[in-house]
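Hi there,

I know you've been waiting on this one. I reran it after we fixed the sequence typo, so this is the corrected version. Both the input and the resulting structure follow.
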Amino acid sequence: MAVYQIYAIKYAGPFTSSGAFLMWHKDWEITAKRNYYIWCIKGAGDTVIVDAGVSPMLAKKRNLAGYVNPAELLSRLDVKADEIRHVVLTHIHWDHTSGVGIFANARFYVQNEEYRFWLKDPIANRPPFQYVSDSVSQAYLASLEGTNRLVMLNGDQKIFPGIECLLAPGHTPALQAVAVNTEKGTAILGSDCAHIFRNYREDWPSSLIVDLVAWMKSYDKLRAKASDLDLIFPGHDPLMTENYPFVAQGITKLA
């Protein structure tokens, strides 16, 4: 089976908030930090990007601290964004999908249920969901519907030898994690199934919950799939920048 390397790419941050944002209904009195990431999977002669980050336009609008265009960061890995052919979108929140236009020639992999909720369901137009949405990137994805650049997945599916998308709902209706075969074993890019490592270790979700029961089942599923708990990577933990080998400014090697 193909063996891959995984890189964390910090494109913005750090940001601070109450710890309760990262540990649901805990740590209200603690100030906690988080970063914004995309991930790069390299190996077997190909490159797969997980999540698209934020576009320069939206970063300016939201005044994102520490923002660097994901295309610039990828160039530090000798990866050209306009040559990327495969981008997995874990879920359709603004900080994970706004940058889809950066990958002008990519095929996007998204769960069918996730896509249908955010782009078709009237409930997604209600204020709590609009708060985490980005209409520009959603329109971009809608323009790809029916073409070979938008791949709708229905549950768990291997997209390459050694790379499998795993349905892991809870944070959103159909968030997907990505299981990757590495030298250390099966690693999981869990995105916002957990914001920080503590979520997995303490069996406690982060915030923005659409289905708490499903979230707990997703934890069970990802822990069973990973070769080791330390190989399940969350969506926003600064430790992915601080505790892993430095590759280039803003980039660390996770596995």
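Quick highlight: The chain has a mean pLDDT of 97.

Best,
R. S.
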